[in-house]
Amino acid sequence: MRFRHPDGSTVHLAYCTNVHPAETLDGVLAQLRDHCEPVRRRLGRDRLGIGLWLARDAAHALVTDPSALRGLRTELEHRGLEVVTLNGFPYEGFGAEEVKYRVYQPDWADPERLAHTTDLARVLAQLLPDDVTEGSISTLPLAWRTAYDQERATAARTALTTLAERLDALHELTGRSLRIGLEPEPGCTVETTRDALASLTAIGHDRIGICVDTCHLATSFEDPHTALDALAQARVPIVKSQLSAALHAEHPHLPEVRAALAAFDEPRFLHQTRTLTAAGLRGTDDLGEALAGDALPDASPWRAHFHVPLHAAPAAPLTSTLPVLRAALTRLVGGPHPLTHHLEVETYTWQALPPELRPRARAQLVDGIAAELTLARDLLTDLGLKELP
After folding, report:
1. Is residue 21 over pLDDT 90?
2. Which residues does 236 contact at the CB level (< 8 Å), separation at least 6?
């Protein structure tokens, strides 16, 4: 979906396909048929943007077979879909029964991460619509915080510098300008906006910026205006923003709140949980740890890294951090000029929701994704952006 900003520029809105498990190119093509095109039709749109997730095997197949890459582009056009951004965070296995810490491997100190992201850039340069010259790729924020020493930090910076040089060369070759955004996430080496500023200053290349995920921002109790103002002041490129909402518990000391939270403690994904105390931010790596005993202080609200559907906040006594998303979006695109032109709804946890909230059929998932995009569209038009055909 495209929107015209009052300054005349185009803002792209997509939804991320990491909600649909697929490891191979055939699986990706099936996603387009079974999910993406039906969402477009459900919205009554002639064109729909998707933030494509390509696992290692799918990306490698496209890079090594030009006819396969041409075929994917043709399939996108045939189904009324367009791609200006890729999600390069998960490497493989994102649809596995247990993902947890595996999603952070390989990290930026491992050569496989550079190779995979280079593949993604080469693919995206060929998938961009003819009238679009700028693309974005989000990636993990360097590494999970443990086992990340100075040697690995140096290796990661070197890899990202190499990637930036490759993106420069790709721009010269294709005319397509691509940027990479580190996506701060609780528990990672780059967890907050402040961490991102420090890391990106050390790298010092305008092709390496930040991907602002509003669920992660909220989970870390960051004020969106303060965070985004700091990025703007430092001239750090906001490569893209993922529109997502975290799980919020206002009174975690109450037994009924604990019981409600426990329904979201599931085995597939890691749900880092945080609370803001007088002494600073405290947290656990997973929701189950927070619920066990006194691992996390419960005198103040808790937030958990669980991407809840934007249009459907959990029932009381829980809620979501949609207000943080609204505030961030206002700062991102509500001013005289957008801070980013790429927005992506990223609720990948539909099948991890408590059983009574999960889509029971493909059509229900399509309806849910369409409802999230409708909410995002309404937020954008309320900010003065005009939806384009």
Report:
1. no
2. 196, 197, 200, 209, 210
